[in-house]
Amino acid sequence: NAGVTQTPKFQVLKTGQSMTLQCAQDMNHNSMYWYRQDPGMGLRLIYYSASEGTTDKGEVPNGYNVSRLNKREFSLRLESAAPSQTSVYFCASQTGGPYEQYFGPGTRLTVT
Amino acid sequence: AQKITQTQPGMFVQEKEAVTLDCTYDTSDPSYGLFWYKQPSSGEMIFLIYQGSYDQQNATEGRYSLNFQKARKSANLVISASQLGDSAMYFCAMSFPSSASKIIFGSGTRLSIRP
Fold first, then answer.
1. Residues of A in contact with B43 (CB under 8 A)
2. Does B10 touch chain A (CB under 8 A)?
3. Mean pLDDT score of chain A, rounded to an integer?
4. Which residues in chain A have Cβ-Cβ distances shorter than 8 Å to B52?
5. Is it the case that residue B37 has pLDDT exceeding 80?
6. 3-state class of B99 per DSSP?
7. Is the pLDDT at B46 greater than 70, yes or no?
């Protein structure tokens, strides 16, 4: 099992460019999440999807959009990148209930 | 309000000693889960241990144990016999099934093990 995979691993964008971060899980989990981690800080929730076909805003959704393409895949889109979006982005999935989330390896994004 | 607090930004511990990382939480939700994650310098998030709010016994996983004191709302991580490979950031986190199992994270503790 690959678990949670993310592409790309690294990305550099210029201000105003757009891009989509891809995430896929093979654990048949219902819920999927996108976080960002700024230097020296914990993770903050951007968007989540409790089940296929639903998405909801988290703590820091501004500047992002998401798509739950199917049960396996959950993508994060930056429509017009800003330097404040320079961060490490983590995707996670979870089966449900008060249990742990499984994280992907992260995408390191730099916006210049 | 739901909140996780880690008051130790950094700690230094001698190899082979035990170490306790502090975590306190605040919630009025009766059902929740508490976790610890390890983030080494390579950046990945590694799940260490889980404690459910209704669990009677403290969780243990190998050298890791979670000292769960519900009345005090604390969930400290204890690492026995620390190793050089334990040097990393450690995050305490809490999830709520009533809120689509969203997790909130503490700010983390950087643990450094001295040889």
1. 88, 105-106, 108
2. no
3. 93
4. 98
5. yes
6. helix
7. yes
